[in-house]
Amino acid sequence: MALLQISEPGQSPEPHRHRLAVGIDLGTTNSLVAAVRNGIAVVLNDHEGRALLPSIVRYLGDGRVAVGVEAEAALARDPRNTVVSVKRFMGRGLKDVTHVENSPYDFLDSPGMVRIRTAAGVKSPVEVSADILKVLRARAEESLGGELTGAIITVPAYFDDAQRQATKDAGKLAGLNVLRLLNEPTAAAIAYGLENAAEGIYAVYDLGGGTFDISILKLSKGVFEVMATNGDAALGGDDFDQRLFCWILERAKLAPLSAEDTRVLLTKARAAKELLTAHSEARISARLAGGETVDVTVTQKEFQEMTRPLVAKTLAPCRRALRDAGLDRSKVKGVVMVGGATRMPHAQQAVAELFGQSPLNNLDPDKVVALGAAIQANVLAGNRASGDDWLLLDVIPLSLGVETMGGLAERVIPRNSTIPAARAQEFTTYKDGQTAMSIHVVQGERELVSDCRSLARFELRGIPPMVAGAARIRVTFQVDADGLLSVSARESSTGVEAAIAVKPSYGLSDEQITQMLRDSFDHAKDDVHARALREQRVEGERMLEATEAALREDADLLTAEESSALRSELEALRKTLSCTDHRTIKSGIERVNRASEAFAGRRMDRSIKRALAGRKVESL
Amino acid sequence: MNLNQNHFELFGLPSRFVVDVAALEARYHERLREVHPDRFAAAPELERRASMQLATRVNEAYQTLKSPLKRAVYILRLRGVDPEFETNTAMPPEFLVEQMAWRERIEAGSEDPEALVRLRGGLREESGKILEKLRGQLDEGGDDEAASEATRMLMFYEKLAEEIDDKLAELET
Fold it and tell me: Where in chain B is the domain with CATH 1.10.287.110?
């Protein structure tokens, strides 16, 4: 007799069509896209065979947008309209942006996030990032031969909520279905761990173009558990370039430079830095717009001396991460080096000294993050093969809290909590008859609210008037698997409930994103309708597939009538897929959604029972 | 979902203060494998949300049982005893004196990382003694009052350890 096959929850038993999913490393300096092909993760190249897409976007007066190498070529000519290192501006206000003085941009400080005035209008960092993502998406769709089901975008582990939210928004704006935001060191650990069948405690030291992360992970029996993470979201290879640039200015006794000349010299500084990785000296020569010439030589020793404080700045987070993980360095089995800036010999040396061992350099530090993300994206999209049952336990990098009396921050969810995580806290009123309360959500480790990052402020209104201290306001913090926070509050002492859900204030509302999508389509003279149709078709197919798989697994949860009602809605949806009006498909999807609501609930109950059913206490 | 299931039942472990850490971790991973949002990334919105809530619940249960302090508090609450951290400050005078001494030592060493690390080791020893007591009080004797007081002491020590960690972190920046 044939055995009945039962699939894992969340996994379709059918040998289905391979879903196209990619991992995207949206870097400060370079971005990459990778995918799993024939069971192997590969970085997808452009037509010229290049894997790295320079994260540079140029906005032209005629509305054209150039991304990558083409934009890079115009960097010195048109610095004001050519945006580099936009990742540094994600979720950041003007006051947080470093090196403003050497930035050629026409910044506009707007609430929450800085914007840049370009020849093609005012651009937010989210839009600029979306322009990079769109190029990677097109590259992937062409290379893989179809529409993408979903993507993982990596973020620095030390990114705070604002920066994460901005990254997710950029993904949406680029038309990607963002399956997950994945921390860069964790992505690297997946790639490294799977390739080397690593077991034990590993540190991932990730010094990128603009960000630094250190994560300590425990790898055991298919579990990747982040024990602690730390870092500096505004420290990277860029800062080494800046330091060398300043040195050149001093050495060549140059007066303050124009934006164009600044860009020329910064580019030269970066080239010299890269050269110094393997050479004992580098010559920097340039002819500036005003006719002056620069011709200086920097030795490796000089470069290392001037940038030593920057390397030292990465070591304190490493010590903190070790302490948070409750470990001393002897427990660390290996240190995986990630990010182009880890090629610098003095970074290697400092890491070797701190951890008391030579770091591991057997993976390409530029590609390992994208590869790990691709592997995870492939699994998340539903292409789980046997053996792909690893579990990823990641954490939030910074504590979340609320402001209490006296401007103090009260930690609600401590840093390094495994996500998803939630915690509810009760608050009460301060005055008799108080009917409203303001809640200020902050992120950071410092005691004073003014030293933490303000995430959101919201007001809870409609509290029934009571004597001071009688109201019970329960504020719930929920951090999801992307590390994104949502906060809700309700007053429950009298049965009168007021509930509110907030998105952090700098985040874009869904309407704003829709508007931006619309604008960008108009701009590109894209056919809005055709795109909407494509999107709805993909969504409709996804819906059909998921629901049918669910019916195969759990048909017994429905009565005959319910089952036939749902099936007839599915048939109706299938028919709409060939129609040319996206609204018809959308309404078909909504009908299936409504018809399957109860079913989804019961299925969830069942999987909960399966998952959470207490086992018999084996031996007492 | 059976909301009445307590954290111990969730992991199929006996509700005792002494916990088999390896079994706890194995059960935790087992549960999480089934409900983790990564398993539901391609599922409909409703299932995604439910999976997030379930995984949150599993994480919370694990965090509670993993930490000896949280575990002790949890066991006491399960037994209907509230250790009353906020209100019950009536600690034995000699304990309070000892606390003051610890604080002074931490203050005196606040510029010296090595001294802080030593103090942290000392605190760990003190905590260890209390944990030893709690084993008897919670698992054998069943003296919940005494266990409450020991738990409060443990909380004081953890606070001090946290302060030392914050000071160490400050010294490094």
Answer: 7-66
The answer to whether A52 and A366 are in contact (CB under 8 A) is: yes
The CATH class that applies to domain B7-66 reads mainly alpha
ipTM of the assembly?
Answer: 0.89
Kindly report the nearest CA distance between residue B47 and chain A, in angstroms: 6
In angstroms, the Cα distances linking A507 to A117, A163, A403, A502, A559 are: 20, 9, 20, 10, 43
B56-99 pLDDT tens trace: 999 999 999 999 999 999 998 898 888 766 555 667 888 888 88
How far is the C-alpha of A294 from the C-alpha of A265, rounded, in Å? 9
Residues A70, A559: Cα–Cα separation, whole Å = 60
User: Counting beta carbons within 10 angstroms of the beta carbon of residue A211, is it exposed (0 to 12), middle (13 to 18) or buried (19 or more)?
Assistant: buried
DSSP label of B141 = I
Element (H, E) at A248: helix A237-251
Q: Please tell me the distance in Å from A380's CA to the nearest CA on chain B.
A: 6
68-87 of B, contacting A, C-beta below 8 A: none
pLDDT digits (tens, 9 = 90+) for A141-192: 999 999 999 999 999 999 999 899 999 999 999 999 999 999 999 999 999 9
Length in residues, chain B: 173
Could you tell me if A217 and A202 are in contact, meaning their C-beta atoms sit under 8 angstroms apart? yes
In chain B, residues under CATH classification 1.20.1280 are 93-172
Kindly report the number of other CB atoms within 10 A of residue A489's CB atom: 22
Distance CA A455, CA A493 (A): 27
Give the minimum alpha-carbon distance from A390 to chain B in angstroms, rounded to a whole number.
Answer: 8
Q: What is the mean pLDDT of chain B?
A: 87
- Closest-approach residue (CA) in chain A for B37: A481
Q: Which chain B residues contact residue A150 at CB under 8 A?
A: 41-42
Tell me the catalytic residues of A. 25, 87, 184, 206
Nearest CA in chain B to A223: B29
Here the tokens at position A215 are 């994560």
Counting residues of chain A whose pLDDT is more than 90, the rounded percentage is 50
Decide if B12 and A618 are in contact by the 8 Å CB cutoff.
Answer: yes
- The arrangement of strands across the sheet holding A437-443 comes to A408-413, A400-404, A437-443, A453-460
Query: Residue B106 pLDDT > 60, yes or no?
Result: yes
- Name residue, tokens 């975008």: A153
Tokens of A615: 């086992």
**Chain A CB contacts of B11 below 8 Å:** 614
B93-172 CATH: 1.20.1280
Question: Residue A64 and residue A85: Cα distance in Å, rounded?
Answer: 20
Q: What is the mean pLDDT of chain A?
A: 85
CB A124 within 8 A of CB A165: no
